[in-house]
Amino acid sequence: MKILKIIFIFLLLVVLTCSVVFVPQFISGQKEENILNEVIYLNYSAGNRPKLTSKQVARLYHNREVGVIYNSINTYSDYSDASKDLVIELIEQLFEEDDKVCSYIKQRLADGTFSFTRSSTLIKIDNQPTALNFVRCYVDDFEIFYEEKTKTILRATFDFSDKNFTDDKDYNSFIENIEYMISKYYEKTLWLMKDEYYFFVDFPKIVESEQDYYFANLFIGCGILQYDDIKAEVMYSY
User: Fold this and answer.
1) What's the helix, strand, coil split of the chain in %, to 5?
2) Using CB atoms within 10 A of its CB, is residue 123 exposed (0-12), middle (13-18) or buried (19+)?
3) What percent of the chain has pLDDT above 90?
4) What is the tens place of the pLDDT at every residue in 23-73?
5) Stretch 172-180: mean pLDDT, rounded?
6) Within the chain, what is the greatest distance between any pair of CA atoms?
7) Closest CA relative to residue 155, chosen from 147, 144, 166, 164
8) Residue 145: beta bridge partners?
């Protein structure tokens, strides 16, 4: 009887030892196999990405919260028709209230040679990475600097040197009209204050020609001022 008891205890120890050693390994193996064979379906919607607006991009640029870096590798003249069409769309957006001005610039662009410089940067919006594409477009003496996705005009320079005027009044009216449309874009569309963007007229002197028309070496520029630019300007004024 005593021998049977010893044998029983020995067998029990063997069973317990095997349970401790092999059962966890078996369970772990089953779990690994289940994990390997498990198929998980994830739903991803691009619509969940935060959508930036022109107002946000203008504010980010004004506050210097985005950086724009260019190098020679970014420059290219082999552009798609979509790139050219977008530049035309930006011109229409800026000067939509004056068909003559809009048509004049579009014609100059149509006759010019396009060149683009692009720089992309990542920012975080609502804790999600968002890419911005900053493009500088050159067309002869025209330059337009914009953000591609939101179609935000950050800076532009226009050459009106071959435009003629009937007299001084016509010239002054032209300048006032251009300034009005640019101010409306930056204040009403981008929600900027007057001291957060600029407008300038370079070489404004008007000269009479032999055909009783007036010409001016006229360059007009506009753009969003950045914070440091405004601060420097205020300091200089003192």
Assistant:
1) 50, 25, 25
2) middle
3) 37
4) 556 556 555 555 555 556 555 555 556 688 999 999 999 999 887 765 544
5) 93
6) 137
7) 144
8) 136, 155
Contact assessment for residue 85 and residue 100, using Cβ atoms and an 8 Å cutoff:
no
Cα distance between residue 13 and residue 6, in whole Å: 11
> Using alpha carbons only, what angle is made at residue 184 by residues 88 and 136, rounded to the nearest 5 degrees?
40
What percent of the chain has pLDDT above 70?
A: 67
What angle separates helix 99-111 from helix 168-184, to the nearest 10 degrees?
90
Q: Is the pTM of this model over 0.70?
A: yes
β-pairing verdict for 197-202 and 219-224: antiparallel
Give me 108's structure tokens.
């100059």
C-alpha 150/C-alpha 148 separation (Å) is 6
Q: Which residues contact 31 (CB under 8 A, 6 or more apart)?
A: none
**Is the confidence at residue 21, as pLDDT, over 70?**
no
Q: Within a 10 A sphere around the Cβ of 96, how many other Cβ atoms?
A: 13
How, if at all, do strands 214-216 and 206-208 pair?
antiparallel
Q: What is the pLDDT of residue 54?
A: 94
